[in-house]
Amino acid sequence: MSATAAIDFSVFRDPERVRGLVERIGRLAGEREINLMEVCGTHTMSIGRYGFRSILPRNLHLLSGPGCPVCVTANRDIDHAVALARHEGVIIATFGDMVRVSGSTSSLAAEKAQGRDVRVVYSPLDALDIAAAHPEQHVVFMGVGFETTAPAIAACILEAEARDLANFSVFCVHKLTPAALAAIAADPKTRIDGFILPGHVSTIIGLEPYEFLVREHQTPGVVCGFEPVDILAGVERLVELIVAGTPRIENAYPRGVAREGNPHARALIDQVFELADATWRGLGELPASGLAIRPTYARFDARRRLDVAVEPTVEPAGCRCGDVLRGRIAPSACPLFGRVCTPQNPVGPCMVSSEGSCAAHYRYRD
């Protein structure tokens, strides 16, 4: 009886295709230990939801990387957002998960409970509407995310300029995915044999920004979609490239990603933002790994507009979220996981975010 005979593939939309992919991955991998890292939070959730770690060979390890924008936001940036929320006359607008992440001593949710004006929005344009409705207050939108959300926030700043909204600004903590991959690929404590590259980010940046993985590290990467078959097909191709010793960057998601990405979206980013050093949770400060608002649009930059005192940064005791994001440990290896740290009582952001590695492992641990 084959190892996959006892697996119930009927839960998948295309059970025979999934079975075939799983069996072929097993044959290709053989007894070889292979480490693959997915660098997208949506992939992390799909891998957990469909139980891929239980149906793939035990010697094929799927590691979660820095693909959750909430998770990689440094404590210092959260502390800065808290300080902005405490500023007289300020309304903070941000996405839902960001509200619950704790900084050194507080969170935006805690500040809201204390009477600060903190609002959850579903689009940066919602923050513009709040600013238009409250001209006597200053609305700060906390801009988090990777290349995927940056064009929308750039467009929001241009719209604020067109509408002459003097009481609107953005606290920009955007990060750039290739810089994180470069840090992980060069980390001597982490061995990554191949990268499951993010579909959403790749729709913007295309394939070329990942070529350094092959050129400098001889490590392959495959852009994947989000359906079970998409992910397994990407894993199959990655294992093929690893076993054959022919590292390449390939696109297994052509219906969503073009090789050149989206030039219009990148032009929008370049118009409003410039490269900046950024601090990542788990990775530290990485040069040219973030975005800052260009001086041309300085009046929409909360860092320039509002001078606030930010408290000294303190990391949560015992939390190993940073090591999880680097792929050094599985979430279950953190001493707080499932004991002190749960989705109901999260200590670190990897358990807070709906796309966090720890949240996915906890939710789908059985």
Radius of gyration: 21 Å
State the share of residues found in helices, binned by percent: 40-55%
CATH homologous superfamily identity of the largest domain: HypD, alpha/beta domain 2
> How many independent structural domains?
2
Reading off the top of the CATH hierarchy, the class of the largest domain is best stated as Alpha Beta
Number of strands: 11
Give a written overview of the molecule:
- With 366 residues, the chain is α/β, with parallel strands linked by helices.
- The chain folds into 2 domains: 33-317, HypD, alpha/beta domain 2 (Rossmann fold); 321-363, no CATH class.
- The protein contains 18 helices and 11 strands.
- Strands 2-1-7-8-9 form a 5-stranded parallel sheet. Strands 4-3-5-6 form a 4-stranded parallel sheet, with helices on both faces.
- The longest helix has 17 residues, at 228-244.
- It is globular and about 65 Å long.
- The model has no long low-confidence stretch (mean pLDDT 93).
